[in-house]
Design goal:
The protein contains 7 helices and 12 strands. It is an alpha+beta fold and about 230 residues long. The chain has one domain. About 35% of the residues are buried.
C-alpha cells in the first residue's frame, strides 16, 4: 500500500511538471506575440510618409495587430492568424487581449513572404464590436482599406461609414487591405493564459484590468503613436 502511494505521488509530480512546462511554453509564445506586435507598430510608423495618417492615429478607438508567423496554419478555403488588441480608455490604452482572424480571401503569405496586419476601430460601433465574442468584417462591422501616408487624401467614406480600417505590411510595403469576410474573434485560451484566469474581454478592453508587465512594452508603443496631436485641439 505504501509503495502504491509512492507511485501515485510520483505520477502526480510528473503530471504537474508537464503542466508547468506546457504553461511556461504557452506564456513564452504569448510574450513573443506581444513583442512581434510591438515591432510591427514600430516598423509601420518608422516611415511617416508611408504610415498611418495622424488623423487616424488620433481618432482610433481600438488597435488590433496580427503579426505573421512562419508556422501560421492554413485552413481549407481560408487563412488563419493570431493577434493582440488594445482599446483607448479614459485612463489610457487598455491591457491587451488575444484574438484570432480567420477566413476571407486575403493571404497571410504572399509568394512565401509573411504579411502583418493592423486593424483600427475608428468609432464607438467599432469598439462595441471589439467587445463582442466575434464578428465578420464587412458584414457585422463595416470595414475598408485604410488610407496611407502623412498627406493621404482625407476621404469621407471611412469617416462616415467604416468602423474598421484595415492595413497590411508585406515585403516592406505598407498599404490598405480589403478584409471583407474575415472573422475576428476572441482567443479565450490565450487570454486566460496571460491573466491566469477567465476574464471578460469587455472588462479588459474597458480598462478594468491592470496591464501585466510583459504586455507593457506593447501598450506603451501603441500609446506612443496613437495620440491626439496638439494641432487637433
Amino acid at each position: 500500500m505504501k509503495h502504491f502511494a509512492t507511485v501515485l505521488t510520483a505520477v502526480a509530480l510528473t503530471v504537474g511538471s508537464f503542466q508547468s512546462s506546457f504553461a511556461a511554453a504557452d506564456k513564452a509564445k504569448l510574450d513573443e506575440r506581444l513583442s512581434d506586435a510591438r515591432a510591427v507598430i514600430d516598423e509601420v510608423m518608422a516611415t511617416p510618409d508611408k504610415g498611418i495618417p495622424q488623423t487616424i492615429l488620433a481618432g482610433a478607438s481600438c488597435v488590433v495587430v496580427v503579426p505573421a508567423y512562419k508556422k501560421a496554419a492554413f485552413i481549407v478555403g481560408g487563412q488563419y492568424g493570431q493577434g493582440v488588441a488594445t482599446c483607448r480608455t479614459p485612463k489610457g490604452w487598455s491591457s491587451p487581449v488575444f484574438v484570432q482572424l480567420t477566413g476571407g480571401s486575403f493571404g497571410f503569405q504572399i509568394g512565401g513572404q509573411s504579411t502583418d496586419l493592423v486593424l483600427i476601430a475608428m468609432n464607438h460601433d467599432g469598439l462595441q464590436h471589439m467587445l463582442q465574442n466575434k464578428f465578420k468584417l464587412g458584414a457585422d462591422a463595416a470595414a475598408s482599406a485604410g488610407p496611407v501616408g502623412r498627406n493621404a487624401a482625407a476621404g469621407t467614406d471611412w469617416k462616415l461609414n467604416a468602423e474598421f480600417l484595415t492595413y497590411s505590411r508585406s515585403k516592406g510595403l505598407f498599404a490598405g487591405l480589403d478584409l471583407d469576410g474575415t472573422v475576428l474573434s476572441q482567443n479565450e485560451d490565450d487570454t486566460r493564459t496571460e491573466y491566469g484566469s477567465d476574464v471578460s474581454f469587455q472588462k479588459v478592453l474597458s480598462g478594468g484590468i491592470p496591464t501585466p508587465p510583459d504586455a507593457r512594452p506593447f501598450v506603451r508603443t501603441v500609446a506612443k503613436y496613437f495620440v491626439i496631436s496638439r494641432d487637433n485641439h
